[in-house]
Design goal:
Layout (H helix, E strand, L loop, with lengths): L5 H15 L4 E7 L1 H4 L8 E7 L5 H11 E8 L5 E6 L5 E8 H12 L11 H7 L2 E5 L3 H9 L5 H16 L5 H10 L3 H22 L10 H8 L7 H11 L7 H19 L9
Parallel strand pairs: 2-5
Antiparallel strand pairs: 1-2, 1-6, 3-4, 4-5
Helix pairs in contact: 7-9, 8-9, 11-12
Length: 280
């Protein structure tokens, strides 16, 4: 786990103290690239407020506007949250609100029940593991994080493979078949949509094969290159070639897709996650 600069940490701690003044706030953490060691100068400050009961919009508005050049309160595009541009550092601050029982259920879903998703199965687990604690009223988050800090379950690894692998190019409704259909009808938007979905499942499988929690939507290639022991030969270049081929409808998309997936198959066979006899 990384640690933000003293300047950013001071800002995060200041914001956390404001939320900590409310009794229903159980914990406040810093996550995202600022806590994972993958931040850039323009990276957001991602703060998570864990609640026993919801915080009033009035209270949230006061906190957001006390720091902001510009503020948006009560966004519901992804997780419930508030966002603003800090008036001193001019950095984007993204505050997300999570109910304690909800996040516990999300982690139990993967670590207790081994339920896979179509892409990004373990991203929430990674988020909890990589969080930097700013406030922890009764030590709940520290205990929760410690419980989440466990070896990658073999049953979860297998579930992710079973859920995602057939969607790559095996099933009738696979991404490959959908992309082929989109090429025939000259549907560039659909091609890009399905290639993005294919890569989401690709990385879900690859991180599972390496028994690594998924880091989320950003810097997946770099994360894989830095941390995966088992990695397909030429992966970065193959992904670049596939994405470049999607900029126009031509005959290169499917060959690039097959090359990418052929090398993934080789890696999965090497790890034992995929039997040799079922390799494409």
């Amino acid at each position: 786990m990384g640690k933000p600069s003293p300047e950013l940490l001071a800002l995060a701690a200041k914001i956390a103290r404001q939320y900590a003044a409310f009794d229903q706030v159980e914990a406040v953490t810093l996550a995202g690239s600022q806590s994972s060691g993958m931040a850039e100068p323009t990276s957001d400050l991602d703060i998570y407020v864990y609640l026993q009961t919801p915080l009033s919009l009035n209270a949230r508005h006061k906190i957001a506007t006390s720091h902001a050049v510009r503020a948006e309160v009560n966004n519901h595009f992804w997780e419930p949250g508030d966002e603003w541009i800090d008036q001193e550092l001019l950095i984007s601050v993204d505050v997300m609100f999570r109910q304690v029982d909800w996040i516990e259920d999300q982690i139990d879903r993967v670590l207790v029940h081994y339920q896979a998703s179509v892409g990004y199965t373990t991203a929430m687990w990674y988020n909890v593991l990589s969080s930097f604690v700013l406030f922890d009223r009764r030590g709940w988050f520290q205990q929760f994080q410690s419980r989440a800090n466990q070896p990658y379950p073999e049953a979860l690894q297998r579930a992710i493979f079973v859920k995602n692998y057939p969607l790559l190019r095996q099933n009738i409704s696979s991404y490959k078949h959908q992309i082929e259909s989109a090429i025939r009808r000259h549907d560039l938007v659909s091609i890009n949509h399905r290639v993005a979905a294919l890569l989401a499942s690709y990385f879900d499988i690859l991180f599972a094969a390496n028994r690594l929690p998924h880091p989320g939507e950003k810097r997946q290639v770099q994360f894989a290159l830095d941390r995966c022991i088992h990695i397909p030969d030429g992966m970065q270049r193959q992904i670049e070639m596939l994405l470049q081929s999607c900029s126009s409808i031509n005959g290169d998309i499917i060959p690039h897709l097959d090359t990418l997936l052929d090398h993934l198959d080789q890696t999965l066979v090497e790890t034992g996650l995929k039997p040799v006899e079922t390799a494409a």
